[in-house]
Amino acid sequence: MLSYQALQELVAIDSPTGYTQKAAQYIHHLLGTYGWKPQYTNKQAVTCALGSKPRLAIAAHTDTLGAIVSRINADGTLGISLLGGPLLNSFEGEYCRIYTLADKVYTGTLLLNNPSTHVNAEAAATKRDIGSMHIRIDEPVQKKADTEQLGIQVGDIICFDTRYQELPSGYIKSRFMDNKAGCFVLFEIARRMAARKQHAPVELFFSNYEEVGHGGSGGYAATIEELLVIDMGVVGTGCEGNEQHCSICAKDSSGPYDYQFRKKLVQLAETHQIPCKIDIYPYYGSDGSAALRAGNDFRVALIGPGVAASHGMERTHKKGIEATIDLCMAYINQL
Description:
8 helices, Aminopeptidase, 335 residues
């Protein structure tokens, strides 16, 4: 039975966009324990060659959603700016950690302004946005100066609890399955190939700015010809994907993915009886989108396990993750 310990450990490491160094260090160390020699790019993404002169890059992003302190309010609470696009209705009431530049960590909660229904008759009807919400710090602060004395300032990073649970039914529910489940797929590729003493012209690429659009823009080996992006499959009304399948994206908001690349993936899924769904994502972009916008001459495909309730309280299934791993291995084996 496949162990998901590495996924749980990665999820436990806070890594919102712009604050991914600890997750990158974990990934670098883990790949090293398998016998590979990972490297950092200048932007601190992690790359790892699984053979000489790699032609195929397999990418997943380590960065997640989060927030950043935008102001200290008069009552000592914190105003926020978002990192990526968290669904605030889902994140309301979530516990969080505030990381200061002095490496102090404080805890808090994301709340509606004036959140008590006993004094605010409009609490239920108020639109949730960054102007109507704040972080309540778990410290005795009553004014701006109190918070400043803690060393909290504008630009400090806010990371939300994940509530990771791995269930007997095979479901894994947690924030940030987008895209730490995708990172786990790359971990398993590296682990399996190391165990088999297998080498292939493949580079693993763990990007760190996908949620803000430029994670996959550069940093690849000069020999790369194809980019296989592993990112969450969309689950929802009008989409074919589900949590127990690997989704193969034909088109997202940035346009269609490479037709021949996609066709080969579909054929491999059919040949090896890997549960997959071909899908269109109406509101979506990926590291592949960023790579193409940056002018990279790659053939790009996008696959990944179905993830329900994206950018909220997400859930996926081991069957979808393992189908994605199997499809990646099938593609690697035919190179």
